[in-house]
Amino acid sequence: KENILEVENLQVSFHTYAGEVKAVRGVSFSLSRGETLAFVGESGCGKSVTAKSIMRLLKPPVAEIKPESKIICDEKDVMKMSGKEIYALRGDEISMIFQDPMTSLNPTMKVGKQIMESLMLHRNMKKAEARKEAIRMLKMVNIPSAEKRVDNYPHEMSGGMRQRVMIAMALACNPKILIADEPTTALDVTIQAQILERGTAKEIFYESKHPYTWALLSSVPKKGDASKEELYALKGTPPDLILPLNECPFASRCEYCMEICKEQNPMETSLSDTHKVSCWLMYPKAPKVKSFYDREE
Ligand code: SF4
Question: Which residues have a Cβ under 8 Å from the Cβ of 78 and sit 6 or more positions away?
Fold first, then answer.
């Protein structure tokens, strides 16, 4: 399948008074046309920074995408784009839905006008046609009385409606890639992204090999026992990234942690063309452990 997005060795740092925070360390993935790719992890683990890096939304000099990072969108090198090209990339190629609508809706402008601006800029529509299309899009995202709501300011709508307006705005540009991000505080410097587990939905849900993924899966409620059992919660917080991080980023919280895990960050092991895992347990001489699946039986 043809890849529409390729990210290779993405490295992002934040320069803070306390020192350099390596927020994203060597993240690689690709997305093909028609494919849905989900990033799963605790809040604050680096998903948003990864998404914002692709759209070049992080502000230098505080945030720095390291030059060795490669971001290729529809065969174009995003890292080498001029300001004008990046502006065209946002909307024409990639749109992002921020779950906090106030971060990207303009509070001083009617929502219809905001959608119309996108349509006129990215789809070359004339004003009357853009207004008709804006109403159609508001209906599509289930905004009641769209003909009237089109002239509302964001503060005249409920939070849920504003969120749907954001979705309509993101779709208005007819982008090739749509990124839907979860709520997060802007520039959260405690974050870190390193992909520990990568695979198809089947590999992640039924054949996962990483203790972090097992912990995440354990926190999913099981059918029928919601009232009986307390949900599993991952203990501790991600590591302090100001400190040099040579160990496995999950070491301080992993119940399978071995000596080697505290000394060396595990390399990625390939289990199949699609299934990759970064964990010392995958080392051929590592002790066999009882996994999440063994316990389920
Ligand atoms: Fe746990 Fe070690 Fe695997 Fe990290 S490398 S997840 S600490 S077993």
Answer: 54, 56, 71, 72, 86, 89
Peptide bond into 249 cis (omega under 30): no
Centroid of chain to Cα 294: 30
Q: Are 47 and 193 in contact (CB under 8 A)?
A: yes
Parallel/antiparallel/unpaired status of strands 197-198 and 63-65: unpaired
pLDDT at 255: 86
Instruction: Specify the 3-state DSSP secondary structure of 15.
Output: strand
Question: Which domains occur in the chain, in start order?
Answer: 1-81+185-195 (3.40.50.300), 198-296 (no CATH)
Listed in order, strand segments (DSSP E) in 33-170 are 63-65, 70-73, 76-77, 94-97
Residue 251 Cβ inside 6 Å of ligand 1? The answer reads: yes
Distance from C-alpha of 263 to C-alpha of 280, rounded to nearest angstrom: 11
d(CA 192, ligand 1 centre) in Å: 16
In terms of Cα–Cα distance, which of 139, 158, 159, 218 is closest to 150? 139
Here the tokens at position 86 are: 């990046």
Sequence letter at residue 134: A
Q: Please check whether residue 54 is in contact with residue 71, taking contact to mean a CB–CB distance below 8 angstroms.
A: yes
Burial (CB < 10 A; 0-12, 13-18, 19+), residue 123, is middle
pTM of the model: 0.65
Q: Are the CB atoms for 76 and 84 separated by under 8 Å?
A: no
Measured CA to CA, the distance from residue 226 to residue 274 in angstroms comes to 33
For residue 73, what pLDDT is reported? 94
- For a substitution probing ligand 1, which of 250, 255, 262 has the most ligand atoms within 8 Å of its CB? 250
Using the mean position of ligand 1's atoms as its centre, give its distance from the Cα of residue 249 in Å.
8
| pLDDT per 10-residue tile (average), the chain, 297 residues | 91 89 90 87 80 90 93 94 90 81 81 93 92 93 91 88 85 86 39 66 83 79 61 66 73 88 87 90 81 65
Q: What is the ipTM of this complex?
A: 0.97
